[in-house]
Design a protein that fits this description.
Jelly Rolls, Arc Repressor Mutant, subunit A, four-stranded antiparallel beta sheet, globular
Length: 274
């Protein structure tokens, strides 16, 4: 019983809410001190540090995140962070799940009071009931436009992109390095070196991140944790839970309840004990 109650207290400090038909997902973490394992998303993420300090590595470069700083992460940016100092992290983020036309964002650290103000507006709107989706959409597009990177940013190596595309096409399958190297037209040694240099993650770690994202979307559509794990390519539900929490900060069950509004077995037990 104690573990259930502890889980309830911790989860009460984390929230997820969707808008714009699921194209935007607002995530909030409060009082967080655990690390986020290195991972990548297949969609852009914009975040604002409210409190606390973190040491982040993004695309093989180190950054110090402090209160008031805004992050702009493009799809494929490899990043992870650890706690620095005694003040736990309070962090708001928007995941752009359904914006295929989103321009590249200039980041990962953004020094702009105007952009931070737009992000705070979005957070306030996402906290409101009822949700004003027109206002959310307007504030989001103003923020994206403000963060748009110059058009001449250097793209990643074509071979690395070919391997990333292969991984996306084979998320739920066993992937071997020789097939990945063939997709890039390189030998296995150069393929591994090229991919890691471009994305800051090895191909298998990148694939694990893609599998978490596949499972996340399946959970949002109502799949059970066991089915989501199987369809996303995880060996079992426990493997999915570990990878999901390391990268997204919450368990698959909590995420599904937050997005769908449906209570799972744990939520039912908590209510009964309370």
């Amino acid at each position: 019983m104690a573990s259930i109650m502890e889980q309830d207290v911790r989860h009460a400090r984390e929230s997820v809410r969707r808008a714009l038909g699921g194209a935007l997902e607002f995530r909030r973490f409060a009082g967080l001190d655990r690390p986020f394992a290195a991972h990548a998303h297949d969609y852009p993420v914009i975040g604002l540090v409210r409190e606390g300090c973190r040491l982040m590595e993004c695309n093989r470069h180190a950054y110090r995140l402090e209160a008031g700083q805004l992050l702009a992460l493009n799809a494929g940016d490899a990043h992870g962070c650890i706690q620095k100092g005694p003040v736990p992290l309070v962090y708001d983020s928007v995941a752009l799940l359904g914006f295929p036309d989103c321009p590249p964002l200039e980041g990962p650290i953004v020094e702009s009071a105007e952009a931070s103000a737009y992000m705070k507006d979005i957070a306030a709107l996402m906290d409101a009931t009822p949700l004003d989706e027109g206002a959310v959409e307007e504030a989001l597009y103003l923020l994206i436009d403000h963060l748009s990177a110059p058009a001449d940013l250097k793209p990643r190596d074509e071979a690395a992109h070919a391997m990333a595309a292969y991984l996306r096409d084979h998320v739920g399958q066993t992937v071997r390095l020789d097939a990945l190297a063939e997709a890039a037209g390189l030998d296995k040694y150069r393929a591994l070196r090229t991919f890691t240099a471009a994305f800051g993650l090895t191909p298998m770690r990148y694939l694990a991140s893609l599998r978490v994202e596949r499972a996340r979307e399946l959970l949002a559509r109502g799949a059970s944790c066991a089915d989501a794990a199987l369809q996303a390519g995880f060996s079992d539900q426990a493997h999915l839970t570990r990878a999901f929490k390391e990268r997204l900060g919450v368990t698959p069950g909590f995420y599904q309840r937050a997005v769908t509004g449906k209570s799972g077995p744990i939520a039912s037990r908590q209510k009964a004990h309370l």
